[in-house]
Amino acid sequence: MKSSQLESVWGYVFIFPWILGMLFFTAGPIIASVFLSFCEWDLITPIKWVGLQNYIKLFMDDPRFWKSLYNTLFYTAMSVPLQLVAGITIAVLMNQQVRLIKVFRTIFYLPSVTAGVASSIIWMWLFNPDVGLINYFLAIFGIHGPLWLASEFWAKPVYVIMSLWGVGGGMLVYLAGLQGIPAALYEAASIDGANSFQKFIHVTLPMLSPIIFFNLVILVIQSFQIFTQAYVMSGGSGAPADSTLFYVVYLYQMGFRFHQMGYASALAWILFLITLGATLLLFRFSGWVHYEGNVKEK
Amino acid sequence: MAGLNLNQEAINRKKIKRIIIFGIICILGFIMLIPFLWMISTSLKIPTEVFSMPPQWIPWPPQWINYVSAWAPKGLPETFNTYLKNTLIITFFNTLGAIVSSSFVAFGFARLKFKGRDFMFILLLGTMMIPVQVTMIPQFILFRSLGWIDTFLPLIVPNFFAISAFNVFLLRQFFMTLPPELDEAALIDGCNYFDIYWRIIMPLSWPVVATIAVFSFVYNWNDFLNPLIYLNSSSNFTLALGLQTFTTVYGSSYHLMMAASMLMLLPIIVVFFIGQKYFIEGIATTGLKG
Amino acid sequence: MKKILAFLGVGLLLFSNFACAPKKDAKTELRFVFWGDLSEIQIFNNIVAEFERENPKIQVKLERAPSGAPYIEKLLTQFAGGMAPDIVFVEVNNFVNFSQRNVLMDLSEFVFSDESFKMENIYPEVLSRFSMDNKLFVLPRDTAPICCVYYNKDLFDEAGLPYPKDDWQWPRDFLPIAQKLTKTDASGRVSRFGFVDDWSLWDAFVLSNGGNYVDDAKNPTRITLDSPEALGGFKFRQDLIYKYKVMPTPSQMSSAGGVGSADLFMTGKAAMFLSGIWKTPYFRDIKNFDWDVAMFPKGPTGIRRFPTGGSGYAITKTCKHPREAWKLIKYLCGREGQVQLAKTGLAQPANMSIAKSEYFLDGQKPKNKGMLLDAVKYVSYSPYMDRWNEFLIAYLNPALDKVWSGEKSPEEALKPVVTKANKELFKK
Questions:
Q1: Fewest CB within 10 angstroms: B148, B170, B259, C407, which?
Q2: Which pTM does this prediction carry?
Q3: A44 or B6, which is more confident?
Q4: What is the mean pLDDT of chain A?
Q5: Is A201 or B77 the better-scoring residue by pLDDT?
Q6: Which tens digit of pLDDT belongs to each residue from B96-125?
């Protein structure tokens, strides 16, 4: 056998568990949801085939679909770049040899694991326009704080701020990446007379680029599906006046509150196409990502 | 003399830089901590103090009893120790399954060339892009037909088949940063690809494998939706599911809810604080990739 | 690969223990899904244990789920997945989604043939809610008129006001009282509100102003929340916030979700609080003031109506042992269960004789609890309309947000959405 053939065989052997899992656990439900998107199903009575009706209604006659799409794109556009930058910055800071660094790493990591009802409630208290801590601080600087979650304009930024609080997961991935950068590269740069900023630009960033790329793709996929926080904080409604009606919140309402699982599935597949498009674009323009060797090149 | 002065200056500059960095870290850290401090403070209050104005940061006397009531509510047929045991079992197996299966699959995607690889990789990523809300019910039907409802199997078995695209993607990115010469040299030495995966790539990827372990631990520790759907008997409940008892339709006991959340968090704090020695500082200075 | 398989093998082996629950032969198993707070869970467990002792042939599998949205998610997944439980605990409003889809068993046959069951003991208003076309779908556990105006007695004393009587009216009595109890500090900020509601309880104002949700609650063909009477009710609540400033704005509340309004009352920052009787156990923790309840005031033309909660037990059509299931729900609604429920103070038993007894009227706070016996006559249920939830969430609430934020009048905000909903939601 030629070595390239051998490599192919081994390749399939390695991804075999995933193929198996995909066939067993994932493919069925996914195909079922494609099928459901052409049906009407209230979850209780039998399924009824309706053809393209869900998709037609979605595009022609559903203002809340557009509204939720806009809200989600707005959130994604704001939060992804901010989270990306904040994650790298904090990871670099957490990679310094300073006192108590282990404690600080823990502090920065913890918020990302505290999602859920309790932390949402804490945020609602903090953002309370009258008695919340945030407006209290703003008042110290003479700023009259906005109404935050009660305002149609400021409610979405609240979620962006919350997402920044949760950058600890991204930070951890960067930290793991920073470990892999050989000290020799920094030493060489020092000999060439580079200062710390130049070292960051010319050594850290390129070496970290595969990880940055990873975080970018993951953040985009996750932001398109923002759900739990928004669901808890608006009681599932998207209040005020649908300004925090994010895409998956709307999809959830359709499926589990309005008993229209077929329509919800159609919504899901539109979101899938949008996310896939965005991801493929990111891959298409990933020339800036620096991989060792040439495995990736075609 | 001049040389010494210069040195002194450089040292001073370095010191100042350090202090500035430390200052920034402290301020940022404090901001990150505020919601937590509030959580801790609330967890030690009596119900009427929870919303008192101006906010009371240090409740006096602190109600440590809240933690007892949160952990061992009276009148349940099972105790939280049962939930803890269940959660530990599920978390342990899932973490194990995630590490073994994801790294195996990721090695294939990262370091081997075969037909359809890139397409299949996009397919893998694609599974992350479908909201779980629409696949949940078909998946339930699938596991029901296997007779797995009200067991831990639907929560555990898929994890042994690299079901998490997140893990595979992350590992693939790391594996791709390792120089290809490693594989070539090993092949010449007579290793097969499994040896390369197990003896060369995995030992070099310790930090990211540990990161996956942390993520997987945390995800399963906190997961609410899957246990909610698949576990029926309260003796099979996980902590995240069991703790929801405190939020009832008709209002919540915030002090208990916060105490329970802090209890949930405690093991994560411990695991992370102690564990970081292994996955962040483990190989920091050895410069593997040079 | 071998290692993976080995791990899997061990895993499967380990969990097959959990997979096969020991099967006790010759026993009929009933799956019963419910939610509840700690005291309710305790009651369910006690009553079912008692039932199993009396009926050794029946084994009940109690499946507790978290309340609210997760409960519905879980239940719907089970229905959709063909694994519906035998007995479900349902809430008066969610019940419609199930009964209209014909998945609940008609209980009337049992009710009429079982002489040991005394239907006349149950509030007729509650039974009527749970029946359609002469079929009864749910055996009620409790009723919960949302008419309890909890008031802080100390604040009334301080202001020299007499305590509210149950026959008060909102323009004549309620408003002036609320105004007198509202306090503003030196900087012009409201430091104490005269009145708050548990969540946006516009229903009570709309209904007692003579408005209605729909033209016919059991056979709705049109939503009527744009009628002058309904709009007047919305307007009054809006005025309470912006014109009279006796109620907090949505931003003064801890934003959406209504978190904290009960706590405003508990901390003395609100003098009156509208909700249902279920707040009682929570408020019994109040140490620093005395409190009681009054029935929600009548509207300007003397109409008295309010929304309601409540719950009960239903048997699903897929249940293979309906006779045993009936036995169980009858037992759950029986004397012992109702007495224990009454004692918690959490809920008003659907059984009138227990509600009237000293178990419910136990002399504990709130002293005026007895008014609830009368209040049941004035409750209004949400319409029998499958898409009512959709109307509330997708049409009404986004529009109402603009009313409660003071941007629009009820007429401006609601007329267009009600018109649109009437066009969209009744399509067959």
A1: C407
A2: 0.89
A3: A44
A4: 88
A5: A201
A6: 999 999 999 999 999 999 999 999 999 999
Other C-beta atoms closer than 10 Å to the C-beta of C87 total: 25
**Residue B96 identity:** L
Q: Which domain holds residue A272?
A: 59-284
Kindly determine whether residue B276 and residue A106, on different chains, have CB atoms separated by under 8 Å: yes
Chain A contact set for B123 (CB, 8 A): 22
Most confidently modeled range among B2-6, B99-103, C257-261: B99-103
Q: Which residues of B touch A93 (CB under 8 A)?
A: 21, 24-25, 28
Does the beta-carbon distance from A45 to C98 stay under 8 Å?
A: no
Q: Is residue A27 part of a domain?
A: no
Q: Which residues contact C353 (CB under 8 A, 6 or more apart)?
A: C121
Task: Test C252 with A127 for CB contact under 8 angstroms.
Answer: no
ipTM reported for the complex, 2 dp: 0.90
Q: Which CATH number fits domain B76-248: 1.10.3720.10, 3.40.190.10, 3.60.15.10, 3.90.226.10?
A: 1.10.3720.10
Asked whether the bond before C171 is cis by omega within 30 degrees of 0, the reply is: no
Counting as contact any 3 or more CB pairs under 8 A, the partners of C are A, B
| Residues pairing with A39 in the sheet | A49
User: Per the domain annotation, does A49 fall within a domain?
Assistant: no
Could you tell me which chain C residue has the CA closest to the CA of A124?
A: C254
Closest CA to B73 of B214, B209, B212, B263: B263
CA distance B69 to C29: 33
Lowest-confidence pick of A223-237, B126-140, C316-330: A223-237
Q: How far apart are CA B111 and CA B182, in angstroms?
A: 11
Q: Over 70: is that where the pLDDT of A60 sits?
A: yes
- State pLDDT tens for residues A3-34: 788 889 999 999 999 999 999 999 999 999 99
For residue C3, list chain B residues with Cβ-Cβ distance below 8 A: 100
Q: What chain A residue is nearest to C71 in terms of C-alpha separation?
A: A256
CATH number for the domain that contains residue A182: 1.10.3720.10
Q: For all residues of chain B together, what is the average pLDDT? A: 84
Chain C contact for B88 (CB, 8 A cutoff): no
The B residues from 181 to 210 touching A (CB cutoff 8 Å) are: 181, 187, 192-194, 197, 207-208, 210
CB contact under 8 A, C252 and A13: no
Q: Chain B contact for C286, CB < 8 A?
A: yes
Could you give the residue range(s) of every CATH 3.40.190.10 domain in chain C?
A: 26-144+310-367, 148-295+387-424
B contact chains, 3+ CB pairs < 8 A: A, C
Per CATH, the number for C26-144+310-367 is 3.40.190.10
Q: How far apart are CA A223 and CA A216, in angstroms?
A: 10
The helix (H) or strand (E) run that includes residue A229 is helix A228-233
Query: How many domains does chain A fold into?
Result: 1
The C-alpha atoms of residue C368 and residue C292 are separated, in whole angstroms, by: 6
Query: Hey, what are C347's tokens?
Result: 């809920």
Residue among B124, B222, B258 whose CB faces A113 most closely: B222
Mean pLDDT confidence for A229-252: 87
The answer for A 234-263 residues in CB contact with B (under 8 A) is 248, 251-252, 255-256, 261
- Closest residue, chain C, to B74 (C-alpha): C38
Are A93 and B174 a contacting pair at CB < 8 A?
no
**A5 within domain boundaries:** no
What whole-number percentage of chain C has pLDDT above 70?
92
Inform me whether the pLDDT recorded for C343 exceeds 80. Answer: yes
Query: Per-residue pLDDT tens for C41-72?
Result: 888 888 999 999 999 999 999 998 888 888 89
Q: How confident is the model at residue A1 (pLDDT cuts 50, 70, 90)?
A: low
Contacts of residue A197, defined as CB under 8 A and 6 or more positions apart, other chains included, come to none
Pick from B168, B152, B144: which is nearest to B91 by CA? B152
pLDDT single digits (tens) B153-169: 999 999 999 889 999 99
Domain spanning C148-295+387-424, CATH architecture: 3-Layer(aba) Sandwich (3.40)
What Å distances lie between residue C34 and C37, C67, C70, C77, CA to CA?
Answer: 10, 8, 12, 15
**How is chain B split into domains, by residue range?**
2-63, 76-248
